[in-house]
Design goal:
By secondary structure, the chain is an alpha/beta fold. It is 46% helix and 18% strand. The protein has 3 domains: 62 residues; 251 residues, Rossmann fold, CATH 3.40.50; 54 residues, no CATH class. The strands form 3 sheets. It has an 8-stranded mixed beta sheet with strand order 3-4-6-5-7-8-11-12, with helices on both faces. A two-stranded antiparallel ribbon has the order 1-2. A two-stranded antiparallel ribbon has the order 9-10. Strand 3 and strand 4 form a beta hairpin. The longest helix has 45 residues. The protein is globular and about 95 Å long.
């Protein structure tokens, strides 16, 4: 490559390079610069794509969340979704009915703090609105009534009972009814049952779907025995070990649960949770994510409200209960509906409670093929039971 060398005036060596070699070097340098620019350009594109993916997913999720509910062709039908003030706090409502002359059924949501219209949105073959004007109620600051200024301190048992009475009076006036039906679902059955005891004059009948009876050791024991039998029959040593890690074996022979949320998660694994044979994600989380009845903002509020309710005074007040001791008589007919695989609120305890309670009429319905949510898991049999309840009590 070196052709000649000489010293300049400063004594430095001068090299004369072959012209061809110089051109090659210049060409290679330019290639490197071009390649560097290409790499930088590709990196920018990759970074933009990475940033764009969550934005695209968010946009798709928003399009999947129009916030629309069921509507009907019948001229006397009703479909409504709104938030209104009840006793100084926002409350949410979904109302579905094919004939406004039908009796009103107030569904007191589960949790408390969990909106249940999500299941009506998902399970399209549930047609309770054929026989009732169905009112799905979101308590103060939950579900579609959630906002960032929620007053969590106001979420107490006394306020919720007063709200139930106020909602009942509103529905009676709006639909021109002397009485309505009230159905408490799961955790909502605690509030509904107490309200019927306080104000029986407002209701044709009390309906407990997945009725909470007690949170005593007996409840934990029935759940434990069910899960243990299922896991042993499957040879599921992993979940058996998890089960043993969250319970204490008492000297009485009963079981005490030490971690309720893990206990319920295991119950879902055993097939006795919210929806039979579905995990908590499949049975609850995914329906919320994909529901069309909520907007994107409402879905976020749904989750925030649900978490908030777990830390309220209400949550504390609803612990340590046994209605077999505290509510043994009602002045209205009492009906109980449970899935045959419901071990969240064990159906055996609900059946026994129905036998114990003193009421003008009473009956226990065990719904085949269902776990904790019989209205949506087996809507045909559950709606038939509710239709029978209506026919036997509407003139009472």
């Amino acid at each position: 490559m070196q052709k000649a060398a000489a010293r300049d005036k400063r004594g430095c060596f001068l090299f004369e390079l072959d012209n061809v070699k110089i051109a090659d070097i210049i060409f290679e340098c330019r290639q490197c610069q071009d390649w560097s620019r290409i790499v930088r350009r590709k990196m920018v594109i990759i970074i933009l794509c990475i940033l764009a993916v969550p934005l695209i997913l968010l946009a798709v999720w928003a399009l999947m969340s129009p916030g629309k509910i069921r509507t009907y062709k019948e001229s006397d039908s009703i479909s409504g979704k709104f938030v209104m003030d009840i006793n100084g706090a926002p409350n949410g409502f979904f109302i579905n009915g094919k004939n406004k002359d039908n009796p009103v059924l107030l569904l007191v949501s589960s949790g408390p703090g969990t909106d249940d219209y999500v299941f009506t949105d998902k399970y399209k073959d549930m047609k309770l609105e054929d026989d009732f004007t169905v009112v799905y109620w979101d308590y103060r600051y939950m579900g579609i009534a959630y906002n960032n200024n929620a007053d969590a301190d106001s979420i107490t048992l006394e306020n919720l009972l007063n709200d139930t009475e106020a909602v009942t009076e509103y529905l009676k006036e709006r639909f021109n009814k002397d009485k309505i039906y009230i159905m408490g679902f799961s955790g909502g059955s605690k509030i509904a049952l107490m309200e019927v005891q306080r104000h029986p004059e407002n209701y044709y009948a009390y309906i407990g779907m997945a009725q909470c009876v007690t949170d005593s050791e007996e409840n934990d024991t029935v759940m434990y025995n069910f899960m243990k039998d299922v896991f042993e029959s499957r040879g599921d040593k992993r979940n058996l070990a998890k089960l043993e890690n969250v319970v204490t074996h008492l000297d009485s022979g009963n079981i005490k649960c030490n971690d309720w949320y893990e206990y319920v998660n295991l119950l879902h694994e055993a097939g006795g949770g919210t929806i039979k044979d579905k995990s908590e994600f499949e049975g609850i989380t995914w329906p919320i994510i994909t529901a069309k009845c909520y907007t994107l903002k409402e879905k976020i509020g749904y989750v925030k409200g649900m978490k908030m309710y777990r830390k309220t005074k209400l949550a504390e007040e609803l612990h340590n209960f046994d209605y077999r001791k505290t509510i043994t008589e009602l002045e209205v007919p009492a009906f109980f509906i449970s899935g045959e695989y419901d071990y969240n609120c064990p159906w055996e305890l609900v059946r026994d409670y129905c036998e114990l309670i003193n009421a003008p009429q009473k009956h226990f319905y065990k719904i085949q093929g269902a776990a904790h949510s019989p209205l949506w898991e087996n809507p045909k049999d559950t709606c038939r039971a509710l239709r029978e309840i209506k026919e036997n009590t509407i003139n009472g």
